[in-house]
UniProtKB/TrEMBL annotation:
Protein name: CCT-theta
Main location: cytoplasm
Entry keyword Cytoplasm: yes
Annotated Pfam families: Cpn60_TCP1 (PF00118)
Family: Belongs to the TCP-1 chaperonin family.
Lineage start: Eukaryota, Rhodophyta, Stylonematophyceae, Stylonematales, Stylonemataceae
Gene Ontology CC: cytoplasm
Length: 545
């Protein structure tokens, strides 16, 4: 009797249905191709003239934006190599809040250059070694190109100037509107120790209508809702915050009350109401005239109105936390009178109408607030969301400036200068990694090339002019997207944050080297039942049970 033994080779080693790809042709080049496709998607969105992408998420929400972080997040990329680049861009977003597109585009360009070297017969270890050397040297020489240093972190004009380039790259034409708003909001909440600045303390509230130019900064918290009850305006407010419902509560232990007549029921209800009124009176006796809670019962609302207490309903725990931070109040989990330390203070709490939307504003007029809110106006929801993302990037930039106030010339000038430096280093390198070093220098030129291309210029001619200018010892010459020529980036006040750029180059280099190190893909069979019918082809649908 003849038996069947296990299969030979990889199929006998792994579980049935597992796919595996190995070697340069199957694994490395396929990974590089996936990363190149991702790079191609984002290339056209870089710079002030970058185009928007229209992405519809699986939930049906529509995104119209040129923000790389939003695009890659909503695309739901599944290719494992491309996801490595996405992870690197997410790290850049968390650390610096900006230059996420630079990470993916530079990493994709490095891999595209590596593909040519692999086809020439260069080993991946030589390419990785050359890329790591070049990335290290590029980051080492960038501080030598520092052209501007922010002097006063509390000067609105200086901070606005430093934030203009970051904002212009996403909302070209609105930088003069958004930059002063972000500068004012950040400076108003700047702590004594500037290194402890938190981006969470600058919030954005979107109110439809008007134009972006009508946006404003409010030093305090803003809720887009109306106050309950009759009190709509309180000055010198004493604020108590409760994370529980403000109403007649149930007993902590279970019990049964036996009522034998209607009179007993009325007496019982009156007793409950009397207890609640005593609690409200005890709270008012502490000086509280504004109560924030997740919900107000009808009876509780009656007694709060009776004692002229303003009621702010706030079902969101996050908004409640911001109100507590703004007023320096301590949220209480139980309905009880607050102590003096638990009561927050606010100069004005009022209901105001912005456009046609009623808002509750906690405004600090006398002393500095710990929270600032930028009220963004706009004609469409997509426009407001794009401005919100732009504000978020600018606030992250301010946090980066509080830690390192140095800037280098923008408009692709610093990339060209770094490319020249790396290329000269490659000429002197003795080993085979010199080819990878020089390819790294070519990859750095992708930013000025893309800036020129997205503004409708000839990238080849622009790159030649830039290289010629930098060879003549003009390290600040970059791309002028308006005139279609080269320009002095410092004269145009175009600057990039040094630490953000260095971090982006480092992450892009590491991501590219990680992809190049992969020589085999092993993918287990996906779990689950049959495919959904709308994802089946016509042939598959006929075979479905």
């Amino acid at each position: 009797m003849m038996g069947y033994g296990p299969q030979a080779g990889m199929s006998g080693l792994l579980k049935e249905g597992t796919k595996q790809l190995s070697g340069v042709e199957e694994a490395v080049l396929r990974n590089i191709d996936a990363c190149k496709q991702l790079k191609t998607i984002l290339c056209t969105s870089i710079g002030p003239n970058g185009m928007n992408k229209m992405v519809k998420s699986y939930m049906g929400k529509l995104f119209v934006t040129s923000d790389a972080a939003t695009i890659v997040r909503e695309l739901e990329i599944v290719h494992p190599a491309a996801k490595l680049l996405v992870t690197a861009s997410e790290s850049q977003e968390k650390e610096c809040g900006d230059a996420t597109a630079l990470v993916i585009v530079l990493a994709g360009e490095l891999l595209e250059k590596a593909e040519g070297l692999l086809r020439l017969g260069l080993h991946t270890s030589d390419i990785i070694q050359g890329y790591e050397k070049a990335g290290l040297e590029a980051c080492r020489m960038l501080p030598n190109l520092v052209s501007y240093e922010l002097g006063d972190m509390k000067n609105v004009s200086e901070v606005s100037h430093a934030l203009t380039s970051c904002i212009s790259s996403k909302m070209h034409g609105l930088e003069d509107v958004i930059a002063p708003l972000v500068a004012d909001a950040c400076i108003s909440i700047l702590p004594a120790n500037i290194n402890t600045f938190s981006v969470e303390n600058v919030r954005v509230t979107k109110i439809p209508g008007a134009s972006v130019a009508d946006s404003m900064v409010i030093k305090g918290a803003v809720l887009t809702s109306n106050a309950q009850g009759v009190v709509k305006h309180v000055r010198d407010a004493k604020v108590a915050i409760y994370t529980c419902d403000f109403e007649m509560g149930q007993a902590e232990t279970k019990g049964t009350v036996l009522l034998t007549s209607a009179q007993e029921l009325m007496d019982y209800n009156k007793g409950e109401e009397r207890n609640l009124e005593e609690k409200v009176k005890d709270i008012v006796d502490k000086g509280v005239n504004v109560v924030v809670s997740t919900k107000f019962g009808e009876v509780a609302a009656h007694f709060l109105d009776k004692y002229n207490v303003m009621m702010v309903k706030c079902p969101s725990k996050h908004e409640m936390r911001r109100i507590a931070r703004s007023t320096k109040a301590i949220a209480l989990p139980k309905l009880q009178p607050p102590t003096i330390d638990e009561i927050g203070k606010c100069d004005v709490v009022s209901v105001e109408e912005i456009g046609s939307t009623r808002c509750i504003i906690f405004k600090q007029e006398q002393e500095g607030s710990r929270v600032a809110t930028i009220v963004v106006r706009g004609s469409t929801t997509n426009m407001q969301e794009d401005v919100e993302r732009c504000v978020d990037d600018a606030v992250h930039n301010y946090r980066g400036m509080s830690r390192d106030p140095r800037f280098v010339a923008g408009a692709g000038a610093s990339e060209i200068e770094a490319a020249r430096f790396v290329d000269k280093m490659g000429e002197k390198a003795p080993g085979l990694d010199q080819y990878a070093i020089r390819k790294f220098a070519e990859a750095l030129q992708i930013i000025p090339r893309v800036l020129a291309q997205n503004s409708g210029q000839d990238p080849g001619v622009m790159l030649s002019n830039l290289i010629a200018a930098h060879e003549g010892n003009n390290p600040y010459i970059g791309v002028d997207i308006d005139e279609g020529t080269v320009c002095n980036a410092m004269d145009k006040q175009i600057v990039d944050h040094l630490a953000t750029k260095m971090n982006a180059i480092t992450l892009a280099t590491e991501a590219a080297c990680t992809v190049l190190r992969v020589d085999q893909l092993i993918m287990a069979k996906a779990a689950g039942g049959p495919k959904p019918r709308d994802m089946m082809g016509p042939d598959d649908a006929d075979e479905a049970p």
